[in-house]
Amino acid sequence: MAAAAGAAFLWAITVTVFTFAARRAGAAVVNTTRLVLAFLLLLALHAAWTGHPWPADLGSGRTFWLFLSGVVGFTVADGLGLTSFLHLGPRLGMLIQTLAPAFSVVAAYAFFGERVAWTKLAAMAVTLGGLALVVTQGADPGQPRAGRLPWKGLLLALGAALGQSAGQILSVKGLEGGVSTLSGNVVRMAGGAAGGVLLLAISGRRADLAAPWRRGSTALQVLSGTVLGVLGGGLLALYALGHAPVGPAATLLSMVPVFLLPIPGSGWASPSRCEPWRVRG
């Protein structure tokens, strides 16, 4: 559980960093760049730790599930979530994506027979209710208000929540049999990087991968965000999913908006974002 909370904290820091970089180089390009860079760094880390860059001893079955979880969780879910922010604003987009833990609980029961005690279900409900208080109430500047919200944005955010849940379930499937966190993350990141590069290639933007490196400040933002969030946060998240029930772990992983409140430059740290009811949430 501590690992899940730690992952959410690191992700909160990198949300701000990647947002600054995306404004200059484009969201899809930054997302793919961070995944490719993280994959290369993980290969080097795995080689230094085990003597082999690629975890070939996982077998085809576990490799398939972990690779697929990377495509679904990193490429699809993150892409849908980012696009939903453009239609709904980050606050409402994040609110809808807090449905991911609920989806994960249902899926974990359906696929693994994993039961969650009523006390933990109650704790999840309290946590998600408090999270809803943090991210709801009021609209982001320039975003549509309730009553005229675009269905496209709502469906994108819902798809992101489903994608996050599916990625978590696929990770748990791939971790069966005692896969190490580092080895599992290498394969997951390979899936995310491959999916991102493929999407850019299909859209004719593969050459744009060089864009973040043309400005020193943008390159530093991408590099620091990758090390903290994609590597550090990703390793902690995968450890949490492998050592705790899926539902409670997914709930703590969804607490990024809570940690965003005090971070300068996040858009959440202004006085209007830290009203007493938000702090109570």
What does this structure look like?
With 281 residues, the chain is mainly alpha-helical. Helix content is 74%, strand content 0%. It has one domain. It has twelve helices and no strands. The longest helix is centred in the first third of the chain and has 29 residues. It is globular. About 2% of the residues have low confidence.
Summarize the entry for a quick read:
The chain is an all-alpha fold and 281 residues long. The protein has helices at 2-25, 27-50, 60-88, 90-97, 100-112, 118-135, 151-174, 181-202, 216-243, 246-253, 256-260, 276-280. It has one domain (2-280).
Number of domains: 1
Total number of strands: 0
Overall geometric form:
globular
The level of helicity is: over 70%
Proportion of beta-strand residues: under 5%
Question: How many DSSP helices?
Answer: 12
Q: In whole angstroms, how far apart are the ends?
A: 20 Å
Overall mean pLDDT stands at 82
- Which structural category fits the helices and strands? mainly alpha
Radius of gyration: 18 Å
Query: In sequence order, what are the helices and strands, one letter per element?
Result: HHHHHHHHHHHH
Low-pLDDT runs of 5+ residues are 268-272
Oligomeric category: single chain
Keywords, please?
281 residues; mainly alpha; globular
Give the topology.
Elements: H1 2-25, H2 27-50, H3 60-88, H4 90-97, H5 100-112, H6 118-135, H7 151-174, H8 181-202, H9 216-243, H10 246-253, H11 256-260, H12 276-280
